[in-house]
Amino acid sequence: MAYLSDIEIAQATKTEDISVIAKRAGIGEKYLIRYGSDKAKVDFGATENLPEKGKLILVTAITPTPAGEGKTTTTIGLADGLRLIGKDVLVALREPSLGPVFGLKGGAAGGGYAQVVPMEDINLHFTGDFHAIGAANNLLAAMLDNHIYQGNALNIDPKRIVWKRCVDMNDRQLRRVVDGVGGGTNGVEREDGYDITVASEIMAVFCLADGIEDLKERLSKIVVAYTYDDRPVTAGDLKAVGAMAALLKDAIKPNLVQTLEGTPAFVHGGPFANIAHGCNSVIATKTAKKLADYVVTEAGFGADLGAEKFLDIKCRVAGLRPSAVVIVATVRALKMHGGKDKSELSTEDLSALKKGMPNLLRHVKNITEVYCLPAVVAINRFPTDTDAEIDLVIEECRALGVNVRLSTVWAEGGKGGVALAEEVVRLCDIPSEMRFSYELELPIEDKIRAVVQRVYRGKDVVLTDEAKKEVERLERLGYGSLPVCMAKTQYSFSDDPKKLGAPEDFVVTVRKVKVSAGAGFVVALTGEIMTMPGLPKSPAAERIDVDKDGKISGLF
């Protein structure tokens, strides 16, 4: 049987005019800034006098594998399912980065019959938000180097510049560069480098700010370099804040689109979860909570990364509290965690599934025991999953007091998410009081250790000498009370991507620490994690094309 690709399904679906979607969400036409007929930005005036009323539902997942989990697809299908059972609902998602779109993933707008559209626009330039963020980032870099060239009144040490330029593309060639070559009117020659745009601190600031004034305040705190006498130099010191904010003034307004079934959706902001905090913008989430009774959002990668940062950083900063958490898993992925090869996942193997289950159960325990939130496991069902395998997952989760619901939203859209939607509504009515995995008053190293021991369930954390010195300096400079943002591989609870399942007795090594003062957190880099990914041997870009009529193919 031949299946339509994601892009073919999206292109075959007739979308409603964005004004109809806005009306469904309770947004007046006068507050729309249109980008064609099927997408628009929403002016802040649409909700400025409304209270936050919506119950927030976080969708997270097990540790990702090449077998796939379908977290975004489940998020969208759950929202459509909630709407089918008569609930007032809105989705809040991240924007995809061009790097993964042309690299490995090929797109990030859901899949099958659970997508947000127009998927081509969302996966490519969309409304230009990422371009604006990149421009603001690089304006700051240009003003920094120009300040040094023009006399260096701030006494900046060129060897202690920590601000990098950025580009929204996987390009390993740009990780380390030398610029200003030739000196003189070409600038000051120095070693430099690029981050991918989604790893830029501007992206983190953009997603954590709650308005223009807060955005400017956060931008002003960004540390770009240190002086010869060890004082931090900020964007505010360089007088760059106003111009940066001018570049971001439209981008910061949330983008309204729709699911294939016409459910309103905000798609806004997109920091990576393995090198940043992995959540859509606070502005989009809070706007959605003012407009709908139920807001479904997601956080990147597995719950040890995306959910941890959503709860310990975003919720803490923005005063948000989820009413329920959905943990997405597939039988196929769990069998990979149990040692099964990707080529053998279509055959029943209860032994491999049993060995892989601890990965799911650890994520479940973290949500219910560490963060004290009600949860449901959503099994994104494949045709090859057997009843015996499904029963095993149900039995293991039931022992932890958590229900399992099957999701077939990829094939059936909202209809395939109704059972999950009904369980989520039930969970949202259960009183809960969320806790964090650590308190801010702890020293930086102890906060890192708390995440490693309580969330990853590792034995301990070790900081390199360089990382220890930087922690001491950051605490001396007054940054010790900030939350921590762990930069770690998404493929394991540990810092070793080869340790699948639920490894134990491992030690996480923090090799470098840096402050993102504007975003308001300290980043701890572990393992081989990089802030500029590279393209794979066969990048998805090789299979993307456009015909003479402008119709795009190859996105998935």
Report what the structure shows.
The protein is α/β, with parallel strands linked by helices and 556 residues long. A hairpin with a 4-residue loop joins β12 (223-227) and β13 (232-234). α6 (129-149) packs antiparallel against α9 (241-248).
Describe the SSE topology:
Blueprint: H1 6-12, H2 18-25, E1 32-34, E2 40-42, E3 55-61, H3 71-84, E4 89-93, H4 98-102, E5 110-111, E6 114-117, H5 119-123, H6 129-149, E7 156-161, E8 165-167, E9 177-179, E10 190-192, E11 194-196, H7 201-208, H8 212-221, E12 223-227, E13 232-234, H9 241-248, E14 255-259, E15 264-267, H10 282-291, E16 294-298, H11 303-318, E17 322-329, H12 331-337, H13 350-370, E18 375-380, H14 387-398, E19 403-407, H15 409-412, H16 418-428, H17 444-456, E20 460-463, H18 465-476, E21 484-487, E22 507-516, E23 521-526, E24 545-546, E25 552-553
Parallel strand pairs: 3-16, 3-17, 4-15, 4-16, 8-11, 17-18, 18-19, 20-22, 21-23
Antiparallel strand pairs: 1-2, 2-14, 5-6, 6-14, 7-12, 9-10, 12-13, 14-15, 22-23, 24-25
Helix pairs in contact: 3-16, 6-7, 6-9, 8-9, 12-13, 13-14
- Distance from first to last alpha carbon: 19 Å
Structural class: alpha/beta
Compute the gyration radius: what is it? 23 Å
Record field, number of beta strands:
25
The average pLDDT value, as a whole number, equals 95
